Amino acid sequence: MAEAHQLDGLVLIPSCDKIVPGHIMAAGRLNLPTIAVTGGPMMPGFACDKDLDLINVFEGWQAGGEALADLEEMACPGAGSCAGLFTANTMACLTEAMGLSLPGCATAHAVDARKIRLGKLSGMKIMELVERNITARQIVTEASIDNAIRVDMAIGGSTNTVLHIPAIASEFGIDLDLDRFDQLSRETPHLVNLRPGGPHHILDLDRAGGIQAVMSRLSSKLALDALTVTGKTLGENLQAFRPINPLANQSVISTLNSPVHAQGGIAILHGSLAPEGAVVKQTAVSAAMMKHTGPARVYDSEEESMAGIVGGGVKAGDVVIIRYEGPKGGPGMRETLAPTSAIAGAGLSESVALITDGRFSGGTRGPCIGHVSPEAAVGGPIALVADEDIVSIDIPARKVDLLVDPAILEERRRAWRPPEPKITSGILARYRNSVTSASKGSVLR
Predict the structure, then answer these.
(1) What is the DSSP letter of 420?
(2) Among this protein's residues, is 361 annotated catalytic?
(3) What letter does residue 326 receive in the DSSP assignment?
(4) Each residue of 295-328: pLDDT tens digit?
(5) pTM listed for this prediction
(6) Strand pairing report for 399-402 and 368-373
(7) Do 193 and 233 meet the contact criterion of CB atoms below 8 Å apart?
(8) What is the secondary structure of 134-151 as a DSSP string?
(9) How far apart are CA 411 and CA 407, in angstroms?
(10) From 301, 361, 392, 439, active-site residue
């Protein structure tokens, strides 16, 4: 539509999970002057004497009890994207970190008058960007993407960024290796303990100064000469920033010298089960589950896994395997929030790990390893796992291994046949034929 109408510039107004990266990918393709006004978070709900968000309902469903109706009624009190640091809010934060939104935009809530003011200021600013011909590709560069990944690590963002950021980079002509996330995670401490891994909501981060405050803490590690939609560099923006709530700023955002965790939110694992890589939100995993070895419980779809978990088929110590849910197998990588929430709701997140070639909600917590590549649909090792096989997970060592004799695996490989596609016509069939591995961002080729 932008090309059809020969637009001079774009004001993007995305809100939920995939819309934000989708809009930014289009901006990379078009390379017009562009500014994003992300829709803003939802306020937390309040019931049972605590702040709430959507994940409380998903986990409360499996736990049951009379409080469930109260959670359903009160957890989502109004407009905006989920109140915790799930995928939508993570992507809004990274959009600001990349320089595509005005300072403060990411965490200004959907119902806050500041969001309207930022919208008006963005409309004024796009006229300046058009006049100066500052285009999207001048703002989104290798340096600004590194800035966004570092912010992602510092705030403990959604694992879905490991799909969205490489896909965005691809549209901007930038080749982003999966292991770049792990490299920057090892160098960037986790500074903000937000839901689902911590106690705080986006509202707390906003009151503490938002992404500008986080980037101020990280300034020694950022490319401060990166251009932003203010028409100024990131360094110039940060020089003008001051937190208006100093106590909240200090209590919500840790310092580099005293972080929540020494490493960033995401770790990239490799091993015999994931030769091309897999992803885990390590800051949402308890110390007791950072290393785990147990027998596999294998399910060939999300529906099968839910039947097994809810039916009592998963026991403490197990490693749940959900496969054929990857880019080609799904097709499209459904968000397996229901199984991970069911495990947490059943009180098993401290004793059961989950591994999938699919992906997760940004609200997933616990030892949940996703994006396993190569996926089962193309014959990756995850397709060869059988019930009771022993699986070893070592997050600090970045390893996920299937402890089965290679000769047995080779015998299974010879016997393996790809399943019939679930969908054989239409857009999803075309997608299935063209999509790359999750390790490449699941882009179309």
Answers:
(1) P
(2) yes
(3) S
(4) 999 999 999 999 999 999 999 999 999 999 999 9
(5) 0.96
(6) unpaired
(7) no
(8) --HHHHSSHHHHHHHHHH
(9) 6
(10) 361
